[in-house]
Amino acid sequence: MAWDTGSKLNRLFRRSRWQLTGWYTGVMAVVLAISAVGMYEAIAHAHRVAADRELKSVAEAVHDSLEKSLTTNGQLKSDPSDLLPNLCLTGDPCLAPFEHSGNHYHPDDLYSSNYYIQVLDIEGAVITTAGNYPPGLSNSDPSSIWQTRRDRSGQPYRQVSLPLYALDNQQPLGQVVVGRSLSDFATYLATIRWNMALALPIAMALIAGAGWWLAGVALEPVRMSYRNIQQFTADAAHELRTPLSAVQATTESVIRLPHISDAEARDTLQVIARQNHRLARLVSDLLLLSRLDIQTSAPGVACCLQDLLADIEEEMAALAIAKGIDLLLDQPATPPLVVIGHEEQLHRLVLNLVSNALQHTPANGKVVIRLRALDKYVLITVEDTGVGIHPDDQSRIFDRFYRIEKDRSRQSGGAGLGLSIALAIAQAHGGSIHVKSAVSKGSTFTIKLPLASAGMPLGQLR
Predict the structure, then answer these.
(1) CA dihedral sign, ordered 227, 231, 236, 241
(2) Virtual CA dihedral for 274, 278, 283, 289, nearest 10 degrees?
(3) Structure pTM?
(4) Is residue 161 classed as helix, strand or coil in its secondary structure?
(5) Which end of the chain is more exposed for a tag (fewer CB within 10 A), N or C?
(6) Which domains does the chain have, with CATH numbers?
(7) pLDDT digit string (tens) for 260-286?
(8) d(Cα 267, Cα 262) in Å, to the nearest integer?
(9) H or E element, residue 433
């Protein structure tokens, strides 16, 4: 989303965009870091549990085999080589670790190079060893079942101790210690840490890009609203300045006169009164738009549209006759079509459209007001045979202070707020306005409002 950085306004929003992007990226970085740490701990815990479960299974298998082969004095019944592969009695010459003969188990079996086995007597002295017992392993605690020990290089080992009992009298004979290296586990966790360390900057770069785009999308309506407010303020100041300047010029011209007649004074007061009326109407329109924007209107009441349109047709009949325009009202007599709202505002809504149609329809033209019910809504159409609206202007006619014929509108006293007020009233009553027009063929404005029976409760205005 490209913004012009030349203006002060766009520089302000660009700085806000950078700030939002920074906050978003920072928050997401914290969230990702916490999630990564949690995921890492979960993976590590799962592997620790799996390793302990496997180690316990191996230890129990070795324990059952040894317990059946030991006598009450802690001596082996059978030949050590028949009991466990690479089993070595203390004091006897032993094969090198990991030296497996073809008659014994595959290296992937329980007694692979990752495991070591020790059989201790009741005094804690080593009776036999098997597997790869690491040199320089730290001392074990005989009272602890599970232990994590380290060798000279700091490599971690996990071991479990199970007690041995005589089968005949259940006398304690010693314990069997089964351990394994955690090097593969440490390597796997190191790989995960590296992957996370590499993935985090890439993820943060993607998040920063997404944050920049999202900040632009989020700030675009704010920027447009701010520009609309600026435009509205400038237009309102311009409209207010014109009558104020006229009043000031009139009063200054009169003050400079040495003498003033009653007729001149009366003319001056008429000019001031006319400009004051214009100011009062403009201020009233602006206050109405402000109340409609912030939705602070009082609760509405039931309004019969047939009565309201009949009053408008009667009120505008004299103006239509004076301009030579046929003003027609086409509405059903029954049943009464009722909406919930403010009668004064609904009257202003339709009156603005009818007045606008009469103003832009030439003599011998026609303006028709129609009322129809459609499902849960009511449609009010104001159709004229006037000059029509160019397609380029149809999307802007509801903008505040927008006038198609600025000179003519200014002469007639309009400030370009009539259609804006009509749209705001319709939206405040849960409805909408649509226009269909063709140049030199006329225009049709359609108001769509929810009927009271459509579910909007009495006494409540949206």
Answers:
(1) positive
(2) 150
(3) 0.52
(4) strand
(5) N
(6) 8-190 (3.30.450), 298-454 (3.30.565.10)
(7) 888 878 888 888 888 888 788 778 777
(8) 9
(9) strand 432-438
